[in-house]
Amino acid sequence: MTVKLLIDTDIWLNLARDYRMAPVLTAIEDLINEKAIELIMPQLVLDEFAPNRDRVVEDSKRSLASYFKRVREAVTQFGDGAKKAETLNQLNEIDYKIAMTGEVSKRTLEAIQKIMATSTPIATSDAAKVKAAERALARIAPFHLSKNSVGDAVLIEIYSETIVGDQGSGNEYVFVTNNTRDFSQHNGDHRLPHADLEPLFRDNSRYATSIVEVVKDIGGELLDEYEWEHAYQQESRKLSEILDAEHLLFRQVWYNRHWNLRSGVEQGKIKIITDREFKKLKGYHPEVVVDKIWEGALAAAKRTEEEVGLDNLGPWDDFEWGMINGKLSALRWVLGDEWDMLDT
């Protein structure tokens, strides 16, 4: 036996909005692969979903980002001096989380598209259009309200046609929607279908307003497993953690390069000269260093030793040195630089 689901557009859009619904999408995909469920996929749903999917994610990100921008401006202008820096750092963390959430949402959209592609789109038949029009003329659900509900009526007729065409198959059918205004009981229990639609939801057919509950009924243990798996997956690092790690690696790389320079000076391979002498030279001269720059480098090395601690400044073997440079390059890439950016 297979459970055939017609999932309304609003459900798909809600799944796209909320990355926390990832376990539900994973469970749906696996239940489809196991042939426990099959999607009834009207072309109408695909056409409604396509122009809205990116907007849903971008609007959510933009709204949050705009809100926190205004909060940041208010804190900057009116915040208490002692706590202002800490508050702004927290807002920066939120901004970073918003950006990361956007990336997760893109992957969610890709997962939804993959799931939708498992079923052949169903074109709207002429018979479905006629029956939808008859509903409109009779002012029965979903035309019981003063609004254009042609699309909703067509979905109901496609769902009905699927059941009729499958008679004797032993399959079950579920119509899942969040549009309780048009499909659910009027001024009643929104979990139940409107009285005009009740004849469609008998025996092996049912009405549902929660995709989570539907998936739990079909593969409850599977969903519990995925919820646990997603709940305990690694959280992304805070922006402050990334910046702190990048700063440490920057100091380590700089200090190592400083010691290469210092060794050259001590061995006489690199000569300390005055600024006047340096200006007389032409081209690139790695064998000399200006005295003022050298004094500044020694002072910076001392500060680095005090800040980082000698235990965190080497020496390292070639493998360890490669790891440090690789980590610095990776973190800088995350922060917006190109790969292999190791300038100090």
| Percent of residues in β-strands | 5-15%
Rg, rounded, reads: 31 Å
The backbone outline, from C-alpha atoms, is elongated
Class per helix and strand makeup? alpha/beta
Averaged pLDDT: 83
Low-confidence runs of at least 5 consecutive residues: 229-233
Number of strands: 6
Give the helices and strands as they follow along the chain.
Answer: EHHEHHHHEHEHHEHEHH
How much helix is in the residues? 55-70%
**Major sheet: arrangement of strands:** 2-1-3-4
Note the main sheet: 4 strands, parallel
Terminus-to-terminus distance: 65 Å
The helix tally amounts to 12
Describe this structure in words.
The model is unreliable at 229-233 (pLDDT under 50). Helix 1 (9-17) runs antiparallel to helix 4 (81-116). This protein has helices spanning 9-17, 22-33, 43-78, 81-116, 126-138, 150-165, 180-183, 211-231, 239-266, 275-279, 291-308, 318-334; strands spanning 3-7, 37-39, 172-176, 205-208, 271-273, 288-290. With 344 residues, the protein is an alpha/beta fold. The protein is 62% helix and 7% strand. The chain folds into two domains: 3-231, no CATH class; 239-334, no CATH class. Strands 2-1-3-4 form a four-stranded parallel sheet, with helices on both faces. Strand 5 (271-273), helix 10 and strand 6 form a beta-alpha-beta unit. It is elongated. It is built from twelve helices and six strands.
